[in-house]
Design a protein that fits this description.
2 copies of one chain form a homodimer. With 371 residues, chain A is of the alpha/beta class. Helix content of chain A is 41%, strand content 15%. Chain A has 12 helices and 12 strands. In chain A, strands 2-1-3-4-5-11 form a 6-stranded parallel beta sheet, with helices on both faces. A 6-stranded mixed beta sheet of chain A has the order 7-6-8-9-10-12, sandwiched between helices. In chain A, strand 6, helix 9 and strand 7 form a beta-alpha-beta unit. Chain A is elongated. Chain A binds a DNA duplex (16 and 16 nucleotides) through helix 2 and helix 4.
DNA sequence: TTGTATGCGTTATCAA
DNA sequence: TTGATAACGCATACAA
């Protein structure tokens, strides 16, 4: 093949900077249809002469042709984009999840629209609107509490837009979900302390509004029951509802302080999440109670800072990144099913938590705690 | 107006779930052109009869009409989307920046595409490709080191796609940038310690590959010079290059350990960034050196975890969220200029850092440091 | 093996 | 004051 065959492109030689398929057609001497078939490697490409293919690909490359995703959507109805909505990206929980989502989408050559509802309902709705206008093929919602009524998201599935939630689940059978097995996590935390010999254990439960709170506590109760461990009510506190994902830190601090002031005796503490644990540790340390020597502390989540906390936090890890990818794979199954006109079902995943033992826990001393 | 005038929409009553402009036209009894004019409040809308407007808007709403962003783009060349590319979202530096970008875009009814290069060049390029295919109106790149040659991004400005970098700047005059004034920040950190009476100060400088490292150090040197403070070379260490944004923690730990082992005497330490500072504090504490009683430590950035560290970290804050918004406003000026066929210039912003005094610094003791 | 024609949902120009 | 028509860039059915 004459590799030097000139590429003729008629252009107003002016402003128009975007190379279109027509340009490639003109440049290669074939029709736009043929170009389309070749560049997309469509079924019909089987019948195109190799020389033609080569020529077209060559020209496309030389011209720097880039398919226009918008125009393409108009025909194919595939936008190759997915909406990713966070209730509050400020929550350290979110970053690894985002990474997991992004990475899985990237593998599939999909690109995410990023939305952050700032915990505001109207903002959530506005973003939903925008995503719909941009015709995302699927939606992933990352949240740990619920203000979104079913209708909003169920609406999506009526439009055949598969949706999945992470860290949260919806009643009904229209939205898939990916969560950690909170009950197992709660059990894991208590079991760990129990095995270390702790019997006087304090608890800072999660806020009522968080869907995680109840099952974690249930896991704790169940283990306590099965092990014959008594949970002393006066050692159980519950964080107040709050929209600030970082409020746990302050809450943990205050509640640990409170326990100390009431001269409660405990050799270990299970916090609702890592920030709460770190806040509690801060209060304990400040009051002269050494962690873990005098009091062990366990968190939940294993967010990035937990490994850097002092002492490094023992915690129940959620596989956040994996949860992100799983959500992607889940909705993409729906997307594919849709295109192949297959039926499919939503799925609800409960992923296994994992105990990560670091420096904030150790075997119970013989004596009780402080004061 | 008869509020009950029926809306007649002919449809195959089947699968098609998306309401188009044509549907609104049919439903309202007007032509698509008129509907377009009314719903976009185009100039010509001035001449449309109020009753017509009302009817059309009513029908559009009742039918749940949503403009198709793709089709709209094809005509208007406006995608109402912006590419946001992170070199590594894992860096705690990034989250507040993302929030700032997202928020500013939201105000303008633009939606961001989220891209994370994972510090990989080919991934960066692939994403760039995707963003171009999706015809983003602008690009924002968040990074603190450079593997991207000018050409890649300069290429954009040839396509009239305004670009801005955050935390990093490019030579040439094609890409805007938003950075913190690192030199001022370095000065701030040292000045603070100096005023507290510290004279024996150790430094952990940033890796060479980070653009921030040099100016921060320059700010330190300049202040030292002007204050007549001597910087002891043996107290100056430099972090090795690394692609892991969290490696500073380990580096800070190791270097602080090293200083201690060499029996160096110092009453304060300035770390390149917060993670490094927190790592250093960990090593100091572990070696029995109390922070801040025996050694003050200053960080840089004020990432989220700094306030929660123990002790809470004194640091030089970058206005990360504001930097994000500023970058948005900067590129949007280019976008607007482009549409109004105006000329415009890129801009380079240096934002003021701010000293945040927390618990990791205090007045120098009379004696030196440890051992 | 390749080309022609059509339509996706909009907007803009022109005509009525 | 409103409507018909063309065009944006692409992919497909059909024709050649």
């Amino acid at each position: 093949m004459s590799a030097e065959e000139p590429i003729a492109v008629k252009r107003a030689s002016g402003k128009n900077l975007t190379i279109t398929m027509k340009d490639v057609a003109q440049g290669s001497g074939f029709s736009p249809a043929t170009v389309s078939i070749v560049l997309n490697n469509a079924p019909l490409a089987r019948y195109i002469a190799p020389a033609t293919k080569k020529r077209i690909e060559e020209v496309a490359k030389k011209l720097g042709y880039r398919p226009n995703a918008m125009a393409r959507f108009l025909r194919s109805k595939r936008s190759r984009s997915v909406g990713v909505m966070f209730f509050d990206i400020t929550d350290p929980f979110c970053t690894p999840v985002l990474r997991g989502i992004e990475n899985a989408l990237y593998q599939l050559s999909y690109i995410p629209f990023f939305c952050d509802a700032h915990n505001q309902r109207n903002r959530f709705e506005r973003y939903l609107e925008m995503l719909l206008e941009h015709h995302v093929e699927a939606l992933i919602v990352v949240a740990n509490w619920l203000f979104v009524d079913i209708h909003l998201l169920a609406d999506l599935s009526k439009r055949n837009i598969p949706a999945a939630t992470i860290g949260w689940e919806l009643p009904g059978d229209t939205v898939s979900s990916v969560m950690v097995d909170n009950e197992a996590g709660g059990r894991l935390a208590l079991e760990h302390l129990y095995q270390l010999g702790h019997r006087k254990i304090a608890f800072i439960r999660g806020p009522k509004m968080l869907i995680d709170s109840a099952p974690r506590w249930r896991g704790i109760q169940k283990f306590a029951h099965s092990a014959g461990l008594e949970i002393e009510p006066s050692l159980v506190l519950q964080l107040p509802d709050s929209f600030d994902p970082n409020s746990g830190f302050e809450g943990g601090y205050r509640f640990a302080e409170e326990l100390l002031q009431k001269k409660k005796r405990f050799t270990a503490l299970i916090a609702f999440d890592d920030l709460t644990a770190i806040g509690a540790i801060r209060a304990l340390t400040r009051a002269g109670v050494k962690v873990p020597e005098q009091c062990s502390v366990v968190g939940f989540d294993d967010v990035a800072l937990s490994a850097m906390a002092a002492p490094a936090l023992t915690t129940v890890r959620q596989p956040l990144e994996a949860m992100g990818s799983l959500a992607v794979n889940t909705v993409m199954e729906g997307v594919n099913a849709g295109h192949e006109k297959r039926d499919w079902n939503i799925s609800r995943h409960k992923m296994n938590p994992e105990l990560v033992i670091r420096d904030s826990t150790r075997a119970a001393a013989l004596t009780g705690s402080d004061d």
